[in-house]
Amino acid sequence: MTRDAVHPFDQAITLAGDPAGARDGDLGKGYANMVGPFGGTIAAALLQAVMEHPQRLGNPIASTVNFAGPIADAPFTVRAEPVRTNRSTQHWNLLLEQGGQIAVTGSVVCATRHDSWSDNERSMPQVAAPETLPMFANPASPVWTRRYDLRFASGQWGLDPVPPSDSQTHVWVRDAEPRPLDFLSLMAMSDVFFPRVFLRKQTFCPAGTITLSTYFHATPDSLAKAGTDYLLGIAQARRFHQGYFDQGAELWSRDGELLVTSSQMVYFKV
Known about the structure:
Helix 2 runs antiparallel to helix 3 (183-189). This protein has one domain: Porin (Beta Barrel). The radius of gyration is 18 Å and the shape is globular. It is mainly β. A hairpin with a 3-residue loop joins strand 4 and strand 5 (89-98). Helix content is 14%, strand content 36%. The N and C termini lie far apart (47 Å). Strands 1, 2, 3, 4, 5, 6, 7, 8, 9, 10, 11, 12 and 13 form a 13-stranded antiparallel beta sheet that branches. The protein has 5 helices and 13 strands. The chain has helices spanning 8-13, 39-51, 183-189, 196-201, 220-226; strands spanning 15-16, 23-25, 59-67, 76-85, 89-98, 101-111, 148-154, 169-175, 207-216, 231-236, 240-241, 244-253, 258-268.
């Protein structure tokens, strides 16, 4: 298969080098954000280093990515180190280095799941079907948004002259160019939500994620079932205070299975 035939997402997160050692990557400009690459692809590239490592056991259940400095649209090096393997969990440390400096630190926990008691304390909200909603299109938005088919059921910033009283968004999302869902694309999609301050203030302002934690509830079977269909995303902040706010998010399959939850702390300036 030629590089041109590879999905843009897979091109962006491709890592070269020994899977058990330092890996070289370059996200390019296909998922460019306001400054540097889209954070979801950075997190996915880090997760890729774990997924391709020969010592990995199980599948990811948690990931934390700390953005220690700005990431440029330039080559970088990723290191994934397994620090402890237990009977059912495996713990990894991650580093991304660029330009001679550590730009990202992080961790991943993989696990082997087993049958046990299960329950859902949340239910997927009922919103308009994606086919009934217009596809988001804004030439002024960052390049990465064009890689996704986004359809807002509520909470699209920039449309309301009166700022809303809360920051909740409901948005359907899938890859604009179809690609079967896996842990890597799920990692990236969990970060597709615009900073909540954009919605509350109804305007663009400087903002950037400081730390992002993602929790995977999906299994390989549920990913395969979701396929290339839309996922319903929900995001909302809880407090804006002295230049920072938190942002929680969820992604649901169309049939009502909660696939991933996340929480991040975001810097902003207004």
